[in-house]
């Protein structure tokens, strides 16, 4: 076993019955889908790709797909080029949702989930629920879903290699902000050290996942920051990204990633929000907190399908961007000023 096994309580955090039941369900299937929320982030993609490799080794007769678009940030990862676009998802015997519950799935993926014979959940967001899954594993104490997948590998006796290490490290640095966020603990660094021992170029992974931007994305961030609106004496900052602005600047959905963090780190800001206009009259809201406000609870008040972490959360609102801005601004100010 690796150094990670020295972390107190590491194996006890794995629900042994879940690990056994999940592998049995996969082995009894012909086709299985691994998926994250619509517009998956680094933790979701890393966890899905790592678990796909596990099943290729432990259940080679089963066809396992990963749904979603890796975008330019994750296209370099082993297995990313074979990911299935959400719109092309078909029928599967089993569907496992990683790093986000079923309420955040793309419509076509949700249809596959509903029609599957069995469903699974592997997630660490305390706002997620376990109802509606055949095989749920929710560990709100975990730093990331990739940490949970690492525990599964250990339970199943799967040896780490460089590809596993790259996928898992991607998710860990994404959800800890390269170990800057408060969910980082001593054990997080122990797991990271184990992954680094497999020769991964950790600095390149950090650059690709957390720092790289396309020029169109840089221009979009400048536009959002320029038009952002400060409230409550500058303690709240709200940015808006419209479809028109994205079309004008040649930007895509993947260029939005990271903009809300730029808003969050403006001096004096305690609560930041980014509203992104989506198709079909929807609006995605990303929330960040640097103070005592719990934005996961705030996201759930904005939408029954909202949630996330106490310091980073989000929701999708079925309304116009103008209506969403008004609602979110009022909620942020009320949260801060009571």
Describe the fold and architecture.
- The protein has helices spanning 16-27, 42-58, 71-74, 107-115, 145-156, 162-176, 186-196, 202-211, 215-226, 243-249, 259-264, 295-302, 321-337; strands spanning 31-35, 63-66, 94-98, 118-123, 135-138, 229-231, 236-241, 271-278, 282-289, 307-308, 312-317.
- The protein is of the alpha/beta class and 338 residues long.
- Strand 3, helix 4 (107-115) and strand 4 (118-123) form a beta-alpha-beta unit.
- Helix 2 packs parallel to helix 5, helix 2 runs antiparallel to helix 6 and helix 6 (162-176) packs across helix 8 (202-211).
- The strands form two sheets. It has a six-stranded mixed beta sheet, sandwiched between helices. The protein has a five-stranded parallel beta sheet with strand order 2-1-3-4-5, sandwiched between helices.
- 46% of the residues are buried.
- It folds into two domains: 3-209, inorganic pyrophosphatase (n-terminal core) (Alpha-Beta Complex), CATH 3.90.1640.10; 215-337, Diaminopimelate Epimerase, Chain A, domain 1.
- It has 13 helices and eleven strands.
- 41% of the residues lie in helices and 17% in strands.
């Amino acid at each position: 076993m690796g150094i990670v096994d020295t972390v107190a309580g590491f194996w006890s955090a794995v629900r042994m019955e879940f690990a056994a039941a999940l592998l049995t369900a996969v082995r009894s299937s012909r086709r299985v889908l691994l998926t994250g929320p619509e517009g998956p982030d680094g933790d979701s993609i890393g966890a899905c790709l790592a678990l796909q490799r596990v099943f290729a080794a432990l259940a080679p007769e089963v066809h396992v797909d990963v749904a979603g678009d890796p975008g330019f940030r994750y296209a370099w990862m082993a297995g990313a080029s074979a990911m299935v676009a959400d719109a092309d998802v078909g029928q599967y015997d089993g569907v496992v949702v990683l790093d986000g519950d079923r309420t955040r799935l793309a419509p076509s993926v949700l249809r596959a989930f509903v029609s599957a014979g069995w469903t699974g959940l592997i997630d660490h967001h305390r706002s997620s629920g376990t109802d509606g899954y055949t095989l749920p594993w929710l560990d709100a104490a975990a730093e990331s879903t990739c940490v949970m997948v690492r525990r599964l590998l250990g339970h199943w006796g799967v040896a780490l290699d460089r590809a596993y290490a790259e996928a898992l490290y991607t998710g860990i640095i994404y959800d800890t902000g390269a170990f800057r966020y408060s969910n980082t603990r001593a054990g997080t660094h122990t797991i990271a050290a184990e992954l680094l021992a497999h020769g991964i170029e950790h600095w390149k992974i950090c650059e690709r996942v957390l720092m790289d931007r396309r020029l169109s994305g840089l221009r979009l961030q400048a536009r959002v920051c320029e038009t952002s609106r400060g409230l409550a004496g500058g303690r709240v900052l709200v940015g808006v990204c419209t479809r028109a602005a994205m079309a004008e600047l040649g930007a895509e959905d993947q260029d939005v990633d990271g903009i809300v963090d730029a808003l969050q780190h403006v001096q004096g800001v305690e609560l930041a929000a980014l509203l992104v206009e989506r198709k079909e009259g929807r609006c995605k809201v990303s929330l960040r907190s640097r103070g005592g406000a719990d934005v996961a609870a705030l996201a759930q008040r904005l939408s029954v399908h909202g949630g996330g972490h106490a310091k980073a959360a989000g929701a999708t609102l079925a309304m116009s961007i103008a209506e969403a801005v008004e609602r979110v601004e009022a909620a942020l100010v009320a949260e801060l000023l009571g």
